[in-house]
Each structure stands twice: as structure tokens, then as C-alpha cells.
Fold:
Amino acid sequence: MSEVKTSRREMYAALTKSAILEAAKKLFVERGYDDTSVDDIARAANVSKGAVYHHFRDKREMFAQVYRETTAAVSTVVAQEVLRVPADSWQRMEVAATTAIRAYARDPQARALLQQVTRVLGDEQTKEIELEYALPLIQQLFEEMNRVGELARFDTEVAAQLAFRVLCEASLIVAAAADPDAASQRAETVMLLMLGGLKK
Structure:
């Protein structure tokens, strides 16, 4: 019986945390981080302020988790699209790059969060989150292309990190653009040309 009670408590806690994050994301997108208070988030989530602080240390921690989940979602979309392409194909590199850039063009919430993240979390924490979710796939693709002989001779680890940083900058350009779709097309063109220069 105690296990059932514990399970219910855990389920309720998970639902409460999810509701808080959903409310926080909506408000961060619509109002911005600075104009959103913990009280606002609690009201929007229909929970007490104490419940918010039970799950999160402060508003900044909530923003970090919202950004982490958004970045993870983009990375999942990219990975899914890459898996549609035959293994060992150079097209995988191209699909990964274009999908990552287009994901921000198509998602206004992701763009709104991206525009705020470095100011809220700082460069170091922002980079840590992006490295956690985006870099592993890029490294994997470079290793795959190197293994099948698609790449010129160079340090693939360094190349993966540089490609990662360029993709991050491309996403920022798209997020800040008045016309995200047009900005995405321009960024994709440049990114594909840069990647093409790494081929044999």
C-alpha cells in the first residue's frame, strides 16, 4: 500500500513540475524572462508559490530547464531526420545542418527563448546545454564520414566543434531575423558551402 501511495505522490509531483514548466515556457515566450515573476508562473500553472519553489530553486533554474527541453526537442528532430537518410551518406551531414537551422525558423517559441538565453543564463551555461544535446550527433556524423572516406584529412574533433559553433550562430541569426524563413535559407546556403569544403 505504501508503494502505491509513493507512486501516486511521484506521479503528482511529476505532473506538477510539468505544469510549472509549461506555464513558465509560455510566459517566458509571451512576456519575456524579465517581465515574468514566480507568482505569475504559479498562477498560470494553478499551483502555489511554495509548490514552484519545491521543484525549482528560482526563476533562472526554470528558464534553464525550459531551454534544456527545447534544445533537446530540436536535437531529437534532427536525429530523426538524419536516420531517414542512408547510413554513410554525405547527405546525412547536409540534412543535420539544414534541419537544425530550419527547426528555429519554424518554431517561434524556440526563437523567443534563444534570443533571451545568453542574457539569462550566461555564455557558459548556455554552451553547456547546447554541447550536451547538439555536439554528440555532430561528432558522430564527422566520425562516420571520416570512416567512409568522405572527408579530407584533418582533426575531426576540432571540425565537429567548429561546425557546432557555426550552427549555433546560424540559429541565432534566424532567431533574430524579421523574416526567419529567408534568414534560414541564407544560413543554410552558407552552411552547406562550408561543409562542402570539408569533403575530399
DSSP finds nine helices and no strands in the chain. Residues 1-56 form a domain with the Arc Repressor Mutant, subunit A fold (CATH 1.10.10.60).
